[in-house]
Write a structure and sequence with these properties.
The protein has three helices and eight strands, in the order H-E-H-E-E-E-E-H-E-E-E. By secondary structure, it is of the alpha+beta class. It has a single domain, classed as 2,3-Dihydroxybiphenyl 1,2-Dioxygenase, domain 1 (Roll). Strand 7 and strand 8 form a beta hairpin. The longest helix is centred in the N-terminal third of the chain and has 14 residues. The chain is globular and about 40 Å long. The two termini are 32 Å apart.
C-alpha cells in the first residue's frame, strides 16, 4: 500500500476545501463509544458517522431529488459563498461545496467533486465521514483504520479543525474531522 506523502499546496487546498465542506455536519450516531475509557479516550463524546456523496457538478440536483424522496430540510452552499473561494479557481465557484439533507433519522451530506488533482471515478465518490468526537478519539480511530490502508490526507490541523482522509485495507474511503481543540 502507498505510504503517507508530503502535501503539495494544491493537495492541501483541495483537502481544506473538502474538509470545510464537511465542517458543519451533525450526523447519525455510529455507536463508536465503548464502556472502557482506555478504548474510548473521548469519554462521553460520541463520533457520528454519515454517508458523504461526491457528484460531478450536479450535487444540488441530486440532493433536491433525494429531498423529494425522503422529505426533510436541505441546505446547499456554493464555493463562492465561502472562504474556500480564495483557494479555488473561478471555474469552481458555482459548484456545491456543502449540501446536507436531514429528514428524521436520515442524513446525507454531499458536495461536487472539488479535487482537480484526482480523477472522479465510480468507487471514489462515496465515503464515510467521522465527525463530532474529541481530537484524541479521532486520532485513535484514524490510526486504527489506517492500519494496512492508504492515508491520502494525513490528520492535520486546518483553519476549520483537524482533518484527514484514508482508504482502509478493504478499500473503504473514510474522512475525519473534529473541531475539538483539546
Amino acid at each position: 500500500m502507498e505510504k503517507t506523502r508530503t502535501l503539495s499546496r494544491r493537495r492541501f487546498t483541495a483537502g481544506a476545501v473538502a474538509a470545510m465542506a464537511l465542517g458543519g455536519s451533525a450526523a447519525l450516531s455510529a455507536g463508536l463509544t465503548t464502556h472502557n475509557d482506555e478504548e474510548n479516550p473521548g469519554g462521553d463524546a460520541m463520533a457520528t458517522l454519515t454517508p458523504y456523496l461526491l457528484f460531478d457538478g450536479d450535487c444540488r440536483q441530486a440532493m433536491e431529488f433525494y429531498q423529494t424522496c425522503f422529505g426533510g430540510e436541505l441546505k446547499v452552499m456554493k464555493v463562492k459563498e465561502t472562504a474556500a473561494k480564495d483557494f479555488m479557481p473561478p471555474s469552481q465557484y458555482e459548484k456545491t461545496i456543502n449540501a446536507r439533507l436531514v429528514s428524521g433519522k436520515i442524513e446525507i451530506s454531499a458536495s461536487d467533486w472539488l479535487r482537480p488533482d484526482r480523477e472522479r471515478v465510480p468507487g471514489n465518490t462515496v465515503c464515510l465521514y467521522l465527525n463530532g468526537t474529541t481530537e484524541e478519539e479521532l486520532r485513535l480511530l484514524f490510526g486504527r483504520l489506517a492500519e494496512g490502508g492508504n492515508v491520502t490526507d494525513p490528520l492535520k490541523e486546518m483553519f476549520f479543525g483537524l482533518y484527514g482522509a484514508l482508504n482502509d485495507r478493504f478499500g473503504v474511503r473514510w474522512m475525519f474531522q473534529s473541531n475539538d481543540r483539546s
